[in-house]
């Protein structure tokens, strides 16, 4: 996502170039791109001269948008209700969610809230601040050469 966020505006990157940039197999990247495109996070143009770009501005795409596109919106923790099983189980008298499940729900909500506050533009700025100038220049040249 960050390589697409860093690409020159109104230009696309071929899937093969994105895969090469991240040293990923084309098959692995194809699955990720398919999910991101289905979620409306990225857009793609078909054909040999086609490629991928962000579907929206980088400051309008949150980390949570990307996580939801790749992992879905299902809860991270699934309570198995083990308190209702075994030799000491009680079938009733419990709250609807156990203490462990409530704790995990709270943690999940905090995690999602934090991710919803960070955009791809924010991450790009942070990565830029942490990256040596020579690497930033090399990356900018690579993007200029490989974007269409």
UniProtKB/TrEMBL annotation:
Residues 129-148 are annotated as: Disordered. It holds the Pfam family Rrf2. SUPFAM superfamilies: Winged helix' DNA-binding domain. InterPro entries: ArsR-like_HTH, Tscrpt_reg_Rrf2, WH-like_DNA-bd_sf, WH_DNA-bd_sf. One of its GO terms (molecular function) is DNA-binding transcription factor activity. Residues 132-148 have a biased composition (Polar residues). One of its GO terms (cellular component) is cytosol. NCBIfam families: rrf2_super. This is Rrf2 family transcriptional regulator. It comes from Arenicella chitinivorans.
């Amino acid at each position: 996502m960050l390589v697409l966020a860093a690409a020159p505006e109104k230009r696309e990157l071929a899937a093969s170039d994105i895969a090469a940039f991240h040293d990923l197999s084309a098959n692995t990247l194809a699955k990720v791109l398919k999910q991101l495109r289905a979620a409306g996070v990225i857009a793609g143009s078909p054909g040999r001269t086609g490629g991928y770009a962000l579907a929206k501005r980088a400051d309008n795409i949150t980390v949570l948008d990307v996580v939801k596109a790749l992992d879905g919106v299902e809860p991270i923790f699934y309570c198995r209700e083990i308190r209702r099983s075994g030799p000491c189980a009680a079938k009733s008298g419990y709250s609807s969610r156990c203490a462990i499940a409530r704790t995990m729900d709270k943690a999940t909500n905090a995690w999602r809230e934090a991710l919803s506050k960070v955009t791809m533009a924010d991450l790009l700025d942070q990565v830029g601040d942490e990256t040596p100038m020579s690497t930033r220049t090399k990356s900018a040249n690579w993007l200029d050469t490989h974007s269409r």
